[in-house]
């Protein structure tokens, strides 16, 4: 097969891959259908009394239940309200994904958001997911002539454009800040408590969530932040007690989600799905006898007091403030508040809730036929969900009718209505009728086409028949890797703990490489070093789900021995300084080279130190504080831009300076310098405790260079191009998980996504978000290109097909030109990686298709699909092929 033909095949494969992945996603992640318009009262519901006329709705981001209710809580005043009976405490169950936008949507509408809102949560400028045309409780308050004020997370403003009478938003992406982001909300509290022109006041605090992201729930900053929030609660509650215009105000405190032991969220662990929720008012003392235990003992993991669904907030607010329950609500009125009404109104409150949920059931199940007030036709045997709901509705109507005729008690009617709403809530929360199976099938079909094209590209891209046969033989390790990885995609446990697979199979691969070294008459030290460093990096960050938050090298050692940690961090930058000083701008002399290299590293180190001081000052050892304080007044944005600018200048000089220099090794030298500059950039985008891993990767890379190039004791490189490509693929995954990545949304790192950015820009932040979370894979994917250059530089003699078979290598291009040699093996590398992701992507699609009714479809399989999309589209197509092509083009331009 000719080179151009193979490139066309690779292009066609990736086109089918990308289109297939997005087609499947459209069918798998559709927007959930909703009923348009606003709910209105029935004549009977209009007459129900309203206990309150105002609401203060305070959201503390990531307020896990134990943060408020446990003995270790610093919400002392809040606990006093609980024990006095002035507060009703609950644990609110937040459905996955436990991310801010979908959780706010759930609290506003009472509906269960679609999983696609997880992606939209990171696109701050997105307006397609607004609730401007949906029924929400703020919309109901505004429709009756009320006014809503809002301060805090600007997600509210984007979801409800034009809704708020007064507003000021703060961005949630500056996770390094947990002081100003809350002060900007608190400064509005006192003035708003003095005003009497609002019906709802929304406050959304982000600082506690930022503390969790930065240092976890056991951070030294956590208890002070809790005390700060408790002080705000005291201020608001005191206003309710002392200000006449607030006497009929209900104060709701809620967490949008919780957090896991690592401080993240997005998944379905008990810590992430268990949020605190309290309704507070001096009025409640009349309806509680002696209050509730505070602090309280959990009756399950992170479960305190009564467990309710987060969607229950919406209908409960509706009946407490007396406005129609939003149309798409699937929540239930919390029964603890029913004693606030007389018997007649209690039944009417629940009828209102049941009738509204019945409308959602009818819209969700087109063939559903509600029965009248006669349950005699209902069987006691197991029934389909729709029939069961119809019978429960009939029993509820029957019980209500009997109560109205005096033949049953109000409690009988209340019991049947609660039973119907409970069953309806469970059915509607799990309803998956919005899958577009046609689009999902088309997506799978396109991936099958991609599989066929990629197989042709790999196995027929070698050239002659003999080479093709040999290609099948030497691709056995690739076949084993793909087969095992595909099998894993059908198991929830294997998906959650996928990192173990990559750690073990990579270790096995490099053990085989060590045996190959020894068979070649060498000691095998290079492969052994790589093996040992894989073992160290695998223990650096504990990842996965089963052992999430367990001790690792970072939490168990480095953060406790900050001097050792910073010695390793500085050693990483010193290594980069040594590398750059040897090569960057070297043709102009050692002095300019040292100045430029020193400038780059100084800017990068200064930024990292300053960022750490603001992010986690406790991680700075005392001996380093005087140096850090020298740059205390410098803005982080300016420091980051200085580092990026220095890297950009060095890259430009490298490319332009080599154009006039005649040297057969220019191509290799440019690649090496660019990769060294990339290492510095990736260290900048990493958490400070992960910077030493960049040094680990560089040492592994140097060991692979020795195996991929000609050494004095061997005639030609020890590793073949296929072995180099496979090694790079394995280390991409090892590095991803070693840096803390996982198949769980909660492992996404947002701490470096605004480096050098003064205002939110969706494109720039999107790029930085990807690079911050794919640091390791980017290092090894572009490193794989450099390794092929080393290989080509050692393969300068004409290659014979017979020699290839005898010495364990294959060269797709028969030439004595290293550039041609490298071009051919680069095509094979891209073809191999495309083959891997097209087949694995097909397996993930098939797994999601088969498990679409599985209990863990939205907590395990769906997040894995999103990660597969990122690996296949952004990492493979954009980074490996797109950026890799630019890398090679820039290199080629510099030497022509």
TrEMBL record:
Residue ranges constituting the GPI ethanolamine phosphate transferase 2 C-terminal domain according to the UniProt record: 432-889
A Pfam family of this chain: PIGO_PIGG
Keyword Transmembrane helix in record: yes
InterPro entries: Alkaline_phosphatase_core_sf, Phosphodiest/P_Trfase, PIG-G_N, PIGG/GPI7, PIGG/GPI7_C
TM ranges: 7-31, 437-460, 472-495, 501-516, 523-541, 553-576, 588-607, 634-655, 717-739, 759-792, 830-853, 865-887
UniProt main location, coarse: endoplasmic reticulum
Pathway info: Glycolipid biosynthesis; glycosylphosphatidylinositol-anchor biosynthesis
GO cellular component terms listed in the entry, alphabetical order: endoplasmic reticulum membrane
Membrane topology designation: Multi-pass membrane protein
Subcellular location, record wording: Endoplasmic reticulum membrane
Region (Disordered) residue spans: 802-822
Keywords assigned: Endoplasmic reticulum, Glycoprotein, GPI-anchor biosynthesis, Membrane, Transferase, Transmembrane, Transmembrane helix
Example GO BP: GPI anchor biosynthetic process
Biased composition (Basic and acidic residues): 802-817
Purpose of the protein: Ethanolamine phosphate transferase involved in glycosylphosphatidylinositol-anchor biosynthesis. Transfers ethanolamine phosphate to the GPI second mannose.
Family classification: Belongs to the PIGG/PIGN/PIGO family. PIGG subfamily.
PANTHER family noted in UniProt: GPI ETHANOLAMINE PHOSPHATE TRANSFERASE 2, PHOSPHATIDYLINOSITOL GLYCAN-RELATED
Record-given protein name: GPI ethanolamine phosphate transferase 2
């Amino acid at each position: 097969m000719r080179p151009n033909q193979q490139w066309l095949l690779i292009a066609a494969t990736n086109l089918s891959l990308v289109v297939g992945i997005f087609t499947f996603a459209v069918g798998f992640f559709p927007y959930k259908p909703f009923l348009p318009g606003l709910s209105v009262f029935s004549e009977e519901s209009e007459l129900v009394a309203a206990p309150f006329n105002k609401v203060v709705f305070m959201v503390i981001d990531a307020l896990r239940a134990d943060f408020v209710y446990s003995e270790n809580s610093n919400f002392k005043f809040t606990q006093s309200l609980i024990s006095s009976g002035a507060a009703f405490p609950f644990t609110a169950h937040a459905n996955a994904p436990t991310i801010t936008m979908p959780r706010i949507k759930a609290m506003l509408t009472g509906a269960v958001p679609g999983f696609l809102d997880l992606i939209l949560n990171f696109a701050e400028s997105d307006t397609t997911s607004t609730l401007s045309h949906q029924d929400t409780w703020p919309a109901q308050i505004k429709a009756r002539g009320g006014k809503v004020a809002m301060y805090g997370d600007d997600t509210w403003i984007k979801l409800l454009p034009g809704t708020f009478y007064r507003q000021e938003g703060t961005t949630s992406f500056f996770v390094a800040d947990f002081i100003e982001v809350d002060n900007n909300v608190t400064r509005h509290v006192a003035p708003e408590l003095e005003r009497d022109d609002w019906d709802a006041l929304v406050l959304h605090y982000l600082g506690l969530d930022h503390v969790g992201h930065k240092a976890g729930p056991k951070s030294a900053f956590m208890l002070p932040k809790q005390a700060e929030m408790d002080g705000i609660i005291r201020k608001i509650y005191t206003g309710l007690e002392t200000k006449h215009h607030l006497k009929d105000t209900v104060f709701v405190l809620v967490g949008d989600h919780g957090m896991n032991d690592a401080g993240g969220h997005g998944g379905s662990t008990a810590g992430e799905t268990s949020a605190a929720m309290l309704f507070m008012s001096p009025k409640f003392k009349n309806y509680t006898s002696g209050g509730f235990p505070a602090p309280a003992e959990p009756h399950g993991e992170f479960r305190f007091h009564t467990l309710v669904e987060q969607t229950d907030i919406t209908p409960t607010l509706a009946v407490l403030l007396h406005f129609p329950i939003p149309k798409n609500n699937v929540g239930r009125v919390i029964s603890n508040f029913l004693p606030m009404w007389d018997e007649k109104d209690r039944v009417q409150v629940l009828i209102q809730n049941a009738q509204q949920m019945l409308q959602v059931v009818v819209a969700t199940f087109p063939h559903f036929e509600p029965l009248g007030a006669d349950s005699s036709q209902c069987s006691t045997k197991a029934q389909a969900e729709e029939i069961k709901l119809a019978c429960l509705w009939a029993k509820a109507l029957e019980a209500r009718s009997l109560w109205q005729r005096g033949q049953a008690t109000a409690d009988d009617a209340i019991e049947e209505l609660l039973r119907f709403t409970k069953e309806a809530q469970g059915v509607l929360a799990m309803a998956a009728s919005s899958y577009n199976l046609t689009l999902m099938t088309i997506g799978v079909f396109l991936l099958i086409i991609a599989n066929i094209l990629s197989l042709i590209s790999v196995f027929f891209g070698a050239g002659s028949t003999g080479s093709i046969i040999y290609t099948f033989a030497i691709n056995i390790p690739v076949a084993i890797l793909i087969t095992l990885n595909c099998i894993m995609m059908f198991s929830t446990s294997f998906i959650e703990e996928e990192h173990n697979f990559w750690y073990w199979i990579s270790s096995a691969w490099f053990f085989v490489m060590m045996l190959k070294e020894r068979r070649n008459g060498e000691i095998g030290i290079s492969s052994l070093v790589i093996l040992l460093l894989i073992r160290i990096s695998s223990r650096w960050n504990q990842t996965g789900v089963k052992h999430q938050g367990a001790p690792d090298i970072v939490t168990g050692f480095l953060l406790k021995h900050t001097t050792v940690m910073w010695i390793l961090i500085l050693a990483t930058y010193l290594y980069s300084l040594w590398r750059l000083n040897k090569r960057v701008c070297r043709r102009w002399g050692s002095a300019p080279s040292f100045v430029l290299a020193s400038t780059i590293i100084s800017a990068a180190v200064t930024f990292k130190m300053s960022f750490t001081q603001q992010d986690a000052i406790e991680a700075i050892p005392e001996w380093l504080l005087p140096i850090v304080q020298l740059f205390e007044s410098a803005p982080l944005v300016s420091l980051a831009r200085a580092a990026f600018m220095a890297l950009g200048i060095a890259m430009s000089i490298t490319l332009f300076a080599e154009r006039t220099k005649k040297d057969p090794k220019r191509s290799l030298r440019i690649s090496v310098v660019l990769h060294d500059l990339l290492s510095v950039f990736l260290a900048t985008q990493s958490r400070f405790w992960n910077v030493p891993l960049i040094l680990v990767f560089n040492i592994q890379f140097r060991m692979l260079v020795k195996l991929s190039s000609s050494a004095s004791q061997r005639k030609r490189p020890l590793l073949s191009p296929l072995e180099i490509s496979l090694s790079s693929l394995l280390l991409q995954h090892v590095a991803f998980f070693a840096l803390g990545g996982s198949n769980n949304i909660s492992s996404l790192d947002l701490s470096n996504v605004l480096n050098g950015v003064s205002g939110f820009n969706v494109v720039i932040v999107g790029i930085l978000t990807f690079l911050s979370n794919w640091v390791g894979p980017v290092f090894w994917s572009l490193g794989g290109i450099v390794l092929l250059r080393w290989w080509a530089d050692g393969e300068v003699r004409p290659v014979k097909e017979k020699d290839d078979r005898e010495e364990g290598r294959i060269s797709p291009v028969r030439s004595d030109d290293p550039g041609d040699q490298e071009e051919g093996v680069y095509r094979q590398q891209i073809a191999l990686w495309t083959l891997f992701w097209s087949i694995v992507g097909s397996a993930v699609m098939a797994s999601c298709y088969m498990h679409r009714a599985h209990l863990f479809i939205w907590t395990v399989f769906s997040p894995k699909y999103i990660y597969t999309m990122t690996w296949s589209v952004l990492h493979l197509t954009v980074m490996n092929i797109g950026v890799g092509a630019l890398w090679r083009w820039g290199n080629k331009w510099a030497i022509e």
